[in-house]
Amino acid sequence: MSAPRILVLDDEADLRELLEITLLKMGLDVDSAATLRQARSLFDERDYALVLTDMRLPDGLGLELVREIAASGKGTPVAVITAYGSAENAVVALKAGAFDYIAKPVALDALRVMVRSALKLSEGAAAADGGAVDSRMIGHSPAMQSLRAQIARLARSMAPISITGESGSGKELAAREIHAQSSRASKPFVAVNCGAIPETLMEAEFFGYRKGAFTGAAEERDGFFQAANGGTLMLDEVADLPLAMQVKLLRAIQERRVRKIGATSEEPVDVRIISATHQDLARCVETGKFRQDLFYRLNVIELALPPLRERMDDLALLADGILNRLTGPGQASLGPGVLEALKAYSFPGNVRELENVLERALAFANDGAIQVGDLSLKAARPVEGGRSETMTPAVAPAPVPPPVEAVQAPPPRPMAAPVALGPAELPSNLPEYLEQVERDIIQRALQQTQFNRTQAAALLGISVRQLRYQMQKLDICAPDD
Ligand SMILES: Nc1ncnc2c1ncn2[C@@H]1O[C@H](COP(=O)(O)OP(=O)(O)OP(=O)(O)O)[C@@H](O)[C@H]1O
């Protein structure tokens, strides 16, 4: 079998030669061109495993070739070579359908990594992995079909993706799916909840540290970037990143290099970034909470997940899939009227809430047959500012109590409500009293939101990080802890 063939398009003879030699040494065949015209005619004649093009050419822009190849339907990955510091060009090329980019001066180690990644795509390795991916993503609604098609397309590129969608709508699941269908599938997928890391630990967590870099650094440790090397790093709740960390992250993404705390040199990292948030990032930029340059970098391609209430056609399939996962195939079922009751509910907590509702209902159900009375659907309440008006009216909780002999619901978590004080009364121990009040309020918010920390934090007007910190301090556990 002949070696994969690469098309190199660059008008600088020196750089073209360097690229040719590097690729030949990798055992690949190379054709090269110095103008767009030559490249077009070569591309029409042959199939390439990768096209590598400079941006500025004597007879036009490399971007034109990117667009033409994307429209050709051949599925050939194209990577662009951008001038040093012209991050904007890279973003434009990625948006136009480029698979990846590499900045001048071309670092040969990074070039090799990129080429190998492109080859995996061309060899169909990704298709083999991706096609047979054991997908957990359920749904046949038009919204889900379009989402699947977008995921398949995005999996073939290195472009940073920003996933938006309400809490529990499946943002992390979609990110995992993109990774699983990509040429990076055999490498790690690392998901980081940016809202859960204390600010003081952020740099160490993201970039790692050398032994002795600070008090307590007894061993050298990798950060998230090193852990995700070769794979995908998902930055969940990215809007919660403090501004100082945003600067460092932008640098790491742009340079594709990170420096461990205490290290004197940087190390290259090959990581695809997927970010997610349930907040409006553009709005965060307007209010100065999020850096515009980082927003621009992360938001190259946006993937919007529909809320569950906008794809109720999927409800039966989803319920089936969730019940199968919880009890095993065919062990649980929905009784008369249950699906209708679920469909009439607005699911502010989306698929996660559906999972919780079904799990709880199962605890009440006889022999796995869930009845309307086993569902306890909450009155809808606003999830975040401004969202509530889009919700459909909620169903009142069904009045039928579970039969006495039914499986007992899990015992409620102990809630030490604070002792109410009379108007003239003072607590004998103020810190203890305040702790009790705080614990009681946090527990109530968590129970109201079925332990969805993001929603509970929003209800209480604090960040998820603050909520996690308080939960830890007050020793409040969620069922999934
Ligand atoms: N289409 C789907 N099919 C099956 N399960 C799904 C689907 N979408 C979401 N889920 C499930 O719902 C739960 C929540 O999904 P996920 O964690 O991906 O949501 P999220 O949007 O990232 O939530 P958050 O905003 O709180 O981080 C998970 O258990 C996930 O497996």
From TrEMBL:
GO terms, molecular function: ATP binding; sequence-specific DNA binding
Residues in Response regulatory domain copies: 5-119
Entry superkingdom: Bacteria
UniProt keyword annotations, A-Z: ATP-binding, DNA-binding, Nucleotide-binding, Phosphoprotein, Transcription, Transcription regulation
4-aspartylphosphate PTM positions: D54
Pfam families: AAA_lid_14, HTH_8, Response_reg, Sigma54_activat
An individual GO BP term: regulation of DNA-templated transcription
Domain Sigma-54 factor interaction: from-to ranges: 137-363
Cross-referenced PANTHER family: RESPONSE REGULATOR PROTEIN PILR, TRANSCRIPTIONAL REGULATORY PROTEIN
Protein name from the UniProt record: Sigma-54-dependent Fis family transcriptional regulator
Organism field: Massilia arenae
